[in-house]
Amino acid sequence: MKPAFSVVFLTTLSGAAQGLLIALVGIETLAKLGVIASPSQMLFVAGAALSVVLGALGLVASFFHLGHPERAWRAIAMWRTSWLSRECLCLPAFLACAASYGFAHWIGAPWSLAIGAVGVIASAALFVCTAMIYACLRFLQEWATPLTMVNFVLLGCASGFTLATACAAWLAPSLAAGLAACACTLTLAGCATRVAALKRNAKLRPKSTVQSATGIKGPNVVQKSRGFTAGAFNLREFFHGRSPQAIERIKWTFLAGAFGVPFVLMLIGIGAQSFALFCLAALTQYLGLVAERWFFFAEARHPQNIYYARAS
Hints:
Elements: H1 5-32, H2 41-63, H3 83-106, H4 112-135, H5 146-171, H6 176-202, H7 210-214, H8 233-237, H9 244-272, H10 275-299, H11 305-308
Helix pairs in contact: 1-2, 1-4, 1-5, 1-10, 2-3, 2-5, 3-4, 4-5, 5-6, 5-10, 6-9, 9-10
């Protein structure tokens, strides 16, 4: 498939926003239970504000994927059957919860944790809807696996907790080490499941053939022409156009950028208690996740390419 950067940014930005809000609510829950000391309210206000900004940027990015942005409201029309429509409903709901959560802490409201709990539910619903847009497409074997949802959740939470660590290093230093440990754990878990998906997908074989694509039953069918000489939608939108060598480089780039380098930076940051290192880890991980999400889309082999993208 041809990766659309609008969707790449939508899924990575909103995923980080969701993970960040989950981390903040987790901190407040532990503080309410007396497990940790209550941090400054500014941690929650700043963290929620960052979550809203990231989610809003993802929402804005999604509009660039539309042929007619003025008709975007129609995307929710099929919410009963479409995961995309459900995502379009869940994202604004999540943003409203994150904004309300930050406002509740700003005014010192006692019901902030209740709003946070609703926000976590909205985050979970958004993770499910976003992942199922791709996991429900059974004809794209690379996506039609439970690992798709697992990876969306783990990678979003990992990046969110890394951001929460950076926020804590600035506004609540006593929490930075614990959050960094959580971020490292989530990063390792995300790496393990992403590598598992890579290994699974490497073993996949197309279920369709040139014979089934063309309807010709002969044993030795060779496609000599696509049937047209100019460019077409089928050639532009269903194939990324990169060489196998380029795809391999991108794979190793995202494995290092999304998992390896941030993990090392976080470990060093725990010892040094360095705000700069935690920020660098968050930035590196996000850039790595952009590469990972690009690869996620490029890796999917649409069956139509058997007919349109191959000619001897």
